[in-house]
Structures are given as structure tokens and as C-alpha cells.
């Protein structure tokens, strides 16, 4: 039986197998956001951070879950799938509610949840926080408090990276289960032929 590191290496280097492509594609997927810009800003930094976190998650999963019984791996896979779905919903909702696009070709900006004290009296039915943001040339710190912007940004990045980490762990666990089942079937087939 291979160690977690050996199995990880086998998965990464086996170009004939779909599992190898799945792991590599999962780790590379966040980098697409550099061009699409649908994730949290700053897009390039967050995309690279997310890919790095996914690589760590894949490595961690192969190393620490390698000898885990199949029943526990199945349970963990379900948890990873649930975390992926919940993370996707939260990240999507926060991006929709708490980011704004300054225009085509420009990076989204993260809004806050608490208006600055000098801006709060200006907001009313005829003048919104987004109107103030446009007048501030999309400098969010001129409209919302820095602490509220930071809280939203940290929450958004955590949801975003957590979502991708969960899918990386899901795929890694799936691959470990499939390889273990193939090896067990090969052992059974080999012992029947003797």
C-alpha cells in the first residue's frame, strides 16, 4: 500500500488518468478569475491565494486522510460537498450585495456595511450610498467605515477560498476512494486466480 505522499505523487504524475487532470484543473480553476474578474478583489492576488490554498488542501487531504477508513472518507466527502455548496451561496450573495463594479475593465470594489458619520446624513430616498460611491470615484473608504469594509472583505475572501478548498478536498477524497477500491478489486481478483 502506498503512503499518502506516494499516492499524491502518483495522482499528479499520471497524465493518462482523469483524476490527475481533475486535481490539476481544480487547483488551476481560480486562476481563470484573473481574466473573468467575477471573484473578490484584488482579483489576481485572491486567485493566486486561492490556488495556493487549494494545493495545500489537496496535499493535506492526501497526507492526513490517506489511511482513513472508507466509511469516514465517504462522510468527509459529503461534508466537503455541503461546504462547497454553502460557500458558493455565501460567496455569491456577498459578491452581489457588497461589491460594486466601477465599469468595464475595472476591478470590483468591496463595500462596507456601516456608513461613515459624515456620509450617513446625506443618504435618503433621492441619494443612495451607491450615488455617494460614484461621486467618490469608487473610493469605498470615503463612504463606509474602514472597519466595516475590512470585515466584509475578510468574510468574502474566507467564503471564496473556503469554497474552492472544499471542492479540492472533495475531489482528492473521491480520488483516494476510487484508487483504494481499484486496488482492493485487483487484490481480490489476484487472490482468486491463485
Give the helices and strands, then pairings.
Blueprint: H1 4-13, H2 18-28, H3 33-36, H4 43-65, H5 70-98, E1 99-100, E2 109-110, H6 129-135, H7 146-192
Antiparallel strand pairs: 1-2
Helix pairs in contact: 1-2, 1-4, 2-4, 2-7, 4-7, 5-7
3D architecture notes:
The structure is a single chain. The chain has helices spanning 4-13, 18-28, 33-36, 43-65, 70-98, 129-135, 146-192; strands at residues 99-100, 109-110. It is mostly helical. The chain has one domain (4-192). Strand 1 (99-100) and strand 2 form a beta hairpin. The radius of gyration is 22 Å and the shape is elongated. The protein starts with a helix and ends with a helix.
Q: What is the number of domains? A: 1
Q: Describe the main β-sheet briefly.
A: 2 strands, antiparallel
User: Helicity range of the residues?
Assistant: 55-70%
Distance between the termini: 20 Å
What general form does the structure show? elongated
Query: Into which percentage range does the β-strand content fall?
Result: under 5%
Mean pLDDT: 87
What is the total tally of β strands? 2
Uncertain regions spanning at least 5 consecutive residues: none
Radius of gyration: 22 Å
Give the count of helical stretches. Answer: 7
Helix/sheet category: mainly alpha
- Strand arrangement within the widest β-sheet reads 1-2
Order of helices and strands: HHHHHEEHH
Amino acid at each position: 500500500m502506498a503512503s499518502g505522499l506516494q499516492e499524491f505523487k502518483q495522482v499528479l504524475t499520471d497524465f493518462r488518468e482523469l483524476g490527475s487532470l481533475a486535481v490539476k484543473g481544480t487547483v488551476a480553476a481560480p486562476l481563470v478569475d484573473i481574466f473573468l474578474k467575477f471573484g473578490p478583489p484584488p482579483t489576481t492576488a485572491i486567485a493566486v491565494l486561492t490556488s495556493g490554498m487549494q494545493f495545500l488542501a489537496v496535499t493535506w487531504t492526501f497526507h492526513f486522510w490517506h489511511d482513513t477508513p472508507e466509511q469516514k472518507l465517504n462522510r468527509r466527502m459529503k461534508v466537503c460537498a455541503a461546504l462547497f455548496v454553502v460557500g458558493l451561496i455565501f460567496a455569491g450573495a456577498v459578491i452581489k450585495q457588497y461589491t460594486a463594479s466601477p465599469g468595464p475593465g475595472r476591478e470590483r470594489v468591496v463595500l462596507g456595511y456601516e456608513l461613515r458619520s459624515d456620509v450617513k446624513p446625506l443618504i435618503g430616498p433621492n441619494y443612495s450610498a451607491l450615488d455617494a460611491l460614484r461621486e467618490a470615484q469608487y473610493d469605498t473608504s470615503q463612504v463606509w467605515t474602514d472597519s466595516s469594509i475590512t470585515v466584509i472583505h475578510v468574510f468574502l475572501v474566507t467564503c471564496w477560498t473556503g469554497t474552492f478548498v472544499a471542492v479540492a478536498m472533495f475531489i482528492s477524497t473521491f480520488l483516494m476512494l476510487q484508487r483504494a477500491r481499484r486496488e482492493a478489486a485487483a487484490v481480490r481478483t489476484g487472490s482468486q486466480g491463485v
